[in-house]
């Protein structure tokens, strides 16, 4: 990234809601950003935790193996623990991230 003010920076990971920092200032040689804990449960990566995510857990419930989309906690099994991660954040969308203090 170039130095100066940017429109936004997004932190994201598969199965998690994105966190967006608006108008961060990037300085040289490095910029420190505050930590963010991403919210889990976005199985289909549409930036919402909703019935589609819960339904996907239901479709894959009981399946085992690597790289299962609905295996949010990456333990190679779609189970009640994955459903709990959807339930905890049900109705949530992208997070606002205050990345610079």
Describe it.
This protein is of the alpha+beta class and about 100 residues long. The chain has a single domain (about 5-95), classed as Immunoglobulin-like. The protein has helices at about 50-60, 80-90, and strands at about 5, 10, 15, 20, 25, 40, 95. Strands 2-4-7 form a 3-stranded mixed β-sheet, with no helix packed on it. A two-stranded antiparallel sheet has the order 1-5. The model has no long low-confidence stretch (mean pLDDT about 90).
Tell me roughly what share of residues is in helical segments.
10-25%
Helices and strands, in N-to-C order?
EEEEEEHHE
CATH fold node name: Immunoglobulin-like
Oligomer category: single chain
| Unreliable stretches | none
Mean pLDDT over all positions? 92
Sheet with the most strands, sense and barrel status: 3 strands, mixed
CATH class: Mainly Beta
Into which percentage range does the β-strand content fall? 15-25%
Name of the CATH architecture:
Sandwich
- The chain-level structural class is alpha+beta
Number of helices: 2
Strand order of the largest sheet: 2-4-7
Computed over alpha carbons, the radius of gyration is: 16 Å
Strand tally is 7
> How many structurally independent domains?
1
Distance between the termini: 20 Å
Rough shape?
elongated
Helices, strands, pairings?
Blueprint: E1 4-5, E2 8-11, E3 15-16, E4 19-22, E5 25-26, E6 40-42, H1 51-60, H2 80-88, E7 95-96
Parallel strand pairs: 4-7
Antiparallel strand pairs: 1-5, 2-4, 3-6
Helix pairs in contact: 1-2
């Amino acid at each position: 990234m170039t130095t100066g003010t940017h429109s936004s920076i997004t932190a994201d990971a598969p199965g998690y809601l994105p966190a967006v920092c608006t108008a961060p200032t990037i300085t040289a040689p490095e910029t420190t950003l505050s930590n963010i804990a991403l919210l889990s449960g976005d199985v289909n990566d549409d930036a919402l935790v909703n019935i589609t995510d819960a339904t996907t857990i239901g479709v894959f419930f009981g399946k085992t193996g690597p790289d299962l989309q609905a295996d949010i906690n990456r333990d190679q099994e779609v189970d009640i623990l994955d459903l709990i991660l959807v339930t905890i954040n049900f109705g949530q969308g992208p997070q606002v991230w205050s990345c610079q203090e």
